[in-house]
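Predict structure. Chain length: 250.
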Amino acid sequence: MKYFVGIDIGSTATKVAILRENKNEIFMLKSMPSGYNSKDTSLDILKWLNDLDIDENNSKIIATGYGRISVPYANKSITEITAHAKGAVFLGASDEIIIDIGGQDTKVIILENKRMVDFIMNDKCSAGTGKFIEVMANRLGLSIDEFFKVAKLGTPINITSTCTVFAESEIISLINKNISRNDLAAGVIVSMANKVLSLASKKQSSDKYFLTGGFSQSDFVIKILEEKLNAKVSTHEFSRFAGAIGAALS
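Prediction complete.
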């Protein structure tokens, strides 16, 4: 095989990683919205791959993520837990605890000697996930990028509701009290970090964490997580592609 392709179809974003045949060199990365239909998204990816002269004759394709069953041309599929663990190790993690804040769920993955030994995911509640941030950003009339920018400028206000629905109602109430968007956005990030702390606390503690997923590029999220976890939180410039990279390695 000349190429190994990992396709991570999440609930919000889809990431693709193409590794060369030695599996230690990234050939190309791509990100796009998952859109309405995961299968249509997977077919758009197939066309993109074919335009790069990558097809079933010179590649192995592995799917992961929420929509992994919607990739009919994949040679196999793997779980997001396995994919993020392998991807994080590729990006430099070793004995750290991996945190992935996904669109629908948050995962805490424990590595020992670069191998996954345990994990835990949030329950069905969306608090502490990307969906929580998305709902609150929409309520504040901000894009996700704008949300993180204003959050850095704010003083976090305490948000007491743990449920996304009730937290949104609380945000509306605070807006009516003229609390600034900066402070509200900062408070939402802290609320999410508290959920991550609660989840991670159910497993072993560590002085080293590694953040993957879409929020890994936010230095404010990393700062708040470090404060809550009382530990170093590392990441990598390609950490948002960790799932796709891990799939390509499988």
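Summary: Strands lie at 3-9, 13-20, 26-33, 59-64, 76-77, 97-101, 106-112, 115-121, 208-212, 232-234.
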